[in-house]
Write a structure and sequence with these properties.
This protein has a two-stranded antiparallel ribbon with strand order 1-2. The protein is about 65% helix and about 0% strand. The N terminus is likely disordered. The chain has about 375 residues and is mainly alpha-helical. Helix 3 packs parallel to helix 14 and helix 6 packs parallel to helix 8. It contains 14 helices and two strands, in the order ββαααααααααααααα.
Length: about 375
């Protein structure tokens, strides 16, 4: 610790500053030196006050943002977009934070992946994948609390979108009830696993953005990211199933469940009428659509791992992964459109695309929630 002394005006200064004050005209602390040190100490005090103020404002804005998200989720539907608009008003008119640019790259990736998923659904590919998942789950129904999240992770990882889970949830619920397993266990674990898979699939906008950011810094590449996120998200999905194994009462001991069975609200099919899933009845085009989608995913991973395979453009730059994902997903959709017996416009009518219709506007409005990030950084 440096030695400290208090000068005759009550200023607490270091030994070096005291010597600086004395090195004047020999008549004690010089006026110019004294004024400089006082200004320096004042600037430091103001800097600390400003830093504390920015930290406080960061936490205030974070709390407001979380409250807006909670409010929008509780109301549901399109109100989530409207809550984002309220957030934009609060941050700009009250906190004077500058507006950030909308995440157009993320939007393009989401639309490209979901359009490819819509094409696969129009060809019957998603129904084929759901049938495969059901076949797996029905082979080991007593282990559905573990198998359901694992299967959900695998299928969402391959499809690049969590929307396929909506088709799996009724099947998971049915198999669980038929086998005396509390359905909330595999369903809750499957929902968590689907979001884990979105964070781990190379087709997701989040993964592409992360890889692009890290590659620019020269630290890691896609293979490094996937080596971390794939086992982490998969093990997390398994852990969610283990955590839910004993969640809640068993159905045999649940009075509400037994009441619904007794009054006919729930009809149990029983093991004697076990359903046999036949995947051979699906058309050739449904299987081709799945192959086209998976080939596109493998190509994206390959180009992300081997940088030398990426095209070098006319301006000398190498094509980024965000553009590669969009190109290959839309090409997969084009190939699928060539083999299906429907018009290409049928893609836009698919259920997998319906939640995305409002998503661009939601992201644009909700961009106001993140505007404080351009003005303030999280406190260290």
């Amino acid at each position: 610790m440096p030695n400290t002394k208090t000068n005759r005006d009550g200023l607490l200064v270091t030994e070096n500053v005291r010597i600086f004050l004395m090195k004047t005209d020999g008549n004690g602390p010089g006026a110019a030196g004294k004024e400089s040190v006082m200004n320096l100490l004042g600037m430091r005090s103001l800097g600390k006050i400003k830093e504390k103020g920015e930290k406080i404002m960061f936490w205030i804005e974070l709390v407001i943002m979380l409250l807006l998200i909670f409010w929008g989720v509780r109301k549901g539907g399109v109100f989530l977009t409207l809550a984002g608009a309220v957030g934009a008003f609060v941050f700009t008119f009250i906190f004077k934070s500058p507006m950030s640019d909308p995440p157009l790259t993320v939007l393009r990736i989401i639309l490209a992946v979901v359009i490819a998923g819509g094409a696969m659904q129009a060809a019957g590919g998603i129904e084929y994948l759901v049938a495969l998942a059901e076949k797996i789950l029905r082979k080991h129904p007593r282990s559905i609390t573990i198998l359901a999240p694992t299967t959900s992770w695998l299928f969402v990882f391959c499809c690049g979108t969590g929307h396929i889970l909506w088709s799996l949830l009724p099947i998971i619920n049915e198999i669980a009830i038929e086998n005396g397993v509390r359905p909330e266990r595999p369903i809750a674990a499957s929902v968590v696993s689907s979001q884990n898979a979105v964070c781990g699939t190379p087709l997701a906008a989040a993964t592409a953005a992360l890889v692009g950011f890290l590659e620019e810094s020269g630290s890691v590449d896609m293979i490094t990211v996937l080596m971390v996120v794939i086992p982490a998200t998969l093990l997390g999905s398994l852990a969610s199933g283990l955590v839910m194994m004993k969640r809640g009462k068993e159905l045999a001991d649940d009075p509400e469940f037994q009441r619904r069975v007794a009054d006919g609200t729930l009809v149990l099919r029983g093991h004697k009428e076990e359903k046999v899933v036949d995947t051979s009845s699906f058309s050739k085009q449904s299987k081709i659509s799945v192959i086209a989608f998976l080939v596109a995913m493998v190509a994206v991973v390959l180009l992300g791992v081997v940088k030398s395979l990426r095209p070098v453009l006319a301006d000398g730059s190498t094509m980024g992964m965000t553009d590669i994902i969009q190109i290959f997903m839309l090409c997969a959709a084009a190939v699928i459109c060539l083999v299906i017996d429907k018009k290409a416009d049928a893609i836009l009518e698919m259920p997998v695309l319906s939640p995305v219709c409002l998503r661009p506007s939601s992201v644009l409005a909700c961009a106001g929630w993140s505007i404080s990030s351009s003005a303030r950084s999280p406190p260290s």
